[in-house]
Design a protein that fits this description.
The complex is a heterodimer of chains A (157) and B (191).
Chain A (H helix, E strand, L loop, with lengths): L1 H24 L5 H12 L17 H15 L4 H12 L14 H30 L6 H15 L2
Helix pairs in contact in A: 2-3, 2-4
Chain B lengths: L19 H16 L41 E6 L4 H16 L3 E7 L3 H11 L5 E5 L3 H5 L7 E5 L5 E6 L4 H16 L4
Parallel strand pairs in B: 1-2, 2-3
Antiparallel strand pairs in B: 1-4, 4-5
Classes of the chains: A mainly alpha (157), B alpha/beta (191).
Chain lengths: 157, 191
């Protein structure tokens, strides 16, 4: 009985690994093209299901785009040329990472601007205030006189 | 004899700085007010004023004339991207039938991501408003046109340039208010 169970598990595992192997080799393209196409595909947005790349998406249009990416790579396009081909038709939207250009200047520089502003606030306002708290200003003559007065009231009444 | 109001504040920030968060919040809300009312599916169109890309489509059947490159030159035409799987296409179909039958404009069909059999069947069932049709089973033309969904319709001028792209079904209102004035404009000779 145990042996039968073992055999069953073994066969089941074989079937799974066979299925995996199938998935990896069913591409009609060479491994090099396939690897390059995956990198390019990861950087291209699926225009139907907008928060996925075409590599991750199950949409039919994404599948056709993946095919096109591979064919263009085979035809000798560089990854950048493939991306340019897509942005030429779909605009910057099709890129997962928006490029740095005049109309995205604010987008890319905002985080650095915020850090800079925070740093300036710290330098100008917070640090002097913290310094001032560490070493309190010495008491003025008037304050010493008031303090002594209070102490006398309490202690030697 | 309480101390007058010259007491030093805990931090060195000036008093007006309390308004900064309010201002920042107002700016963020402004962005949201504009951004959230936009339709994220309406992508900007890159193809306006560009020539219709070259294409080679497959026939749906022997009886349905095949759409070729030469067809989109010589007059203002409407290229309609549809598919038998597309629900909104069935919704706009009566309007296309009417436009096609009235001869208001020459309509060409691009049967996108479909099979010849299903496309043919669909046209038999709902009627064929298209002067010519081509099958784009693997999205070659669709990607070249920057199509993101069906139906999409392109107005092509006599020189074969794309002048307008309409995303979504063509309703009588879309035809009257948008497409017809544009066609008259294009035919009026404004380059």
């Amino acid at each position: 009985m145990n042996r039968l169970l073992f055999l069953f598990c073994f066969l089941a595992f074989q079937a799974v690994s066979f299925a995996n192997a199938q998935e990896k080799t069913d591409s009609e393209f060479s491994p090099a093209i396939e690897a390059e196409a995956r990198t390019v595909g990861k950087s291209l947005r699926c225009v139907v299901c907008q928060n996925q790349s075409i590599e991750d998406s199950g949409a039919p249009l994404a599948a056709d785009m993946r095919q096109l990416v591979r064919e263009r790579l085979v035809a000798g396009d560089t990854p950048d040329e493939v991306r340019a081909f897509m942005t030429d038709r779909y605009g910057n939207f099709v890129l997962m990472k928006p490029p740095f250009q005049p109309d995205t200047f604010l987008l890319w520089s905002a985080p650095f601007a915020f850090v800079l502003i925070a740093g300036l606030c710290w330098l100008v306002y917070l640090r002097p205030a913290a310094r001032a708290m560490e070493t309190p200003a010495p008491l003025s003559d008037e304050e010493i006189a008031r303090l002594n007065a209070h102490l006398q009231e309490r202690g030697e009444a | 004899m309480t101390a007058p109001n010259t007491e030093k504040r805990a931090t060195g920030f000036p008093r007006w700085s309390a308004l900064i968060p309010v201002g920042v919040l107002a700016i963020i809300m402004g962005f949201f007010a504009v951004g959230l009312t936009k339709d994220p599916h309406a992508l900007p169109t890159m193809m306006i004023d560009r020539p219709m890309p070259e294409f080679q489509l497959d026939p749906l059947s022997k009886d349905i004339p095949l759409l070729t490159n030469e067809d989109v030159r010589g007059g203002v035409t409407l290229v309609n991207v549809f598919g038998s799987w597309c629900v909104a296409c069935a919704a706009e179909h009566p309007e296309l039938m009417e436009l096609g039958n009235s001869g208001a404009i020459t309509i060409y069909g691009v049967d996108w991501r479909d099979t010849a059999f299903e496309g043919r069947q669909w046209l038999e069932r709902y009627g064929n408003p298209y002067t010519k049709v081509g099958l784009d089973a693997d999205s070659r033309l669709a990607i070249n046109l920057g199509v993101t969904g069906a139906p999409e319709s392109f107005l092509i001028d006599a020189d074969g340039r794309i002048r307008y792209k309409h995303i979504g079904p063509i309703t009588p209102e879309v035809w009257e208010d948008t497409l017809l004035p544009l066609i008259q404009d294009i035919e009026g000779g404004t380059p």
